[in-house]
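Q: I'm teaching a short session on how sequence maps to structure, and I want students to see two examples side by side rather than one. Could you give me a first protein with its sequence written out and its structure tokens following it? Keep the formatting plain so it prints cleanly on a handout.
A: Of course. Example one:
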Amino acid sequence: EGEIVTLIGANGAGKSTTLRTISGLLKPKTGSITFLGQNIAGVRAHEIVKKGISQVPEGRRVFAEMTVMENLDLGAFVRKDKAGIQQDLKNQSAGTLSGGEQQMLAMGRALMSRPKLLLLDEPSMGLAPLLIKEIFNIIVDINKSGTTVLLVEQNANMALSIANRAYVLETGRITLSGKAQDLAASEDVRKAYLGG
């Protein structure tokens, strides 16, 4: 709780599947998923959002035909206080936003439910290096404001640089875990994921 935890591994290792299972989009075949002392394995996705878990999916998945405001309203469906949001782009179609703006919208939509745990699936995918740095700064700020973050990210260098703890996933199994800085310094991790 209160940390940024990253899950790194090659394509096909099971990182996105793990997030989709936690968020209720997939049902686990075995095992349990414990959140705040409750087993949430098999609980429906909208109920998991109500419990305090929100996910920003891989590829952003904004509703392109809807306005920015309508996308944000969808993220706030569990809130009782439906506070108004002031934003310059609120009436613009989400599909006309740049990749970075769409990523920020997807993150904003996920944060509208005021989650205790934010799941981020490849937030840097398809973004320019300058925008990647900005997105990662925003992730750190979100965490500092009290939201726990579980981050899946191909850019292992960036992920390990902001995370407290890290897990290496290989074909559905955790093969290494520890403090992010220790994994970043590990020879095996450097060779496999950090290009060193």
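Q: Perfect. Now a second example for contrast.
A: Example two:
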Amino acid sequence: MLNSNEIRQLLSELRLEGAFIQKITEHDYHSFTLSMFSKTEKAFLLYFEVGTANQHFCRTEVMRKKSARTQRFTQYLKANITGSRIVSVSQVSGERVVCLTLSHNDETRKLFFRFFSGPGANIIVTDSSNIILELLMRRPLRGEEKGRLYTEEEGRAWDEERFPVRPWSGSSFNEYLDRYYQEQEKAEKTEDAAEALKNQRDRELASLRAQIRDARAREEHSRDYAALKETADILSS
């Protein structure tokens, strides 16, 4: 999970002002990729993941697998955000909140990313007056639903000592994070696959043990069958 200074470092490396959002690809409920284009950077990808233990964003070189079904929020983004130009990028001082101000068809929208832990995490789209138009996760008790006024978080002093940027290597922090989380994702998938195989093995072993117990019970039950049959044949004759 990113802290406020890591988010600031990521944003400092990106040149998002003036870039266009050409395409939006959903991967699952919590993650999607923006296909971007700018005159200076040309085509590039931005990956976002919110509301998970690994929530983060970064420039990426890999287009992840597309989800089988598109959720309501992504449908809204495709219909209303695709083709938008990023006018400005801002971060609430000392907080894990990023705002992209977008312009499209003479309309201004704001795209807020909240990389908070727990129920605070969300992605919220508002108009220029901060009226909520759509959001990833609807939370009425927090006032986060369509038509409500989104109250922006208050900033605080940057605290680099308490929230340092983690040690990193490579050409950029974006490149490092992209590699780090992809490797972590692969490791988690490998672990999940191993756990699934272990569970399948345990189920099959349990089934075989049950079959052996049943076979032994039948064997025990029919142990005196031949002698009893001989006696019965004698009595019958």
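Q: What should students look for in example two?
A: Point them to this: The CA atoms of residues 212 and 218 lie 10 Å apart. Also worth mentioning: The first strand starts at residue 20 and ends at 28.
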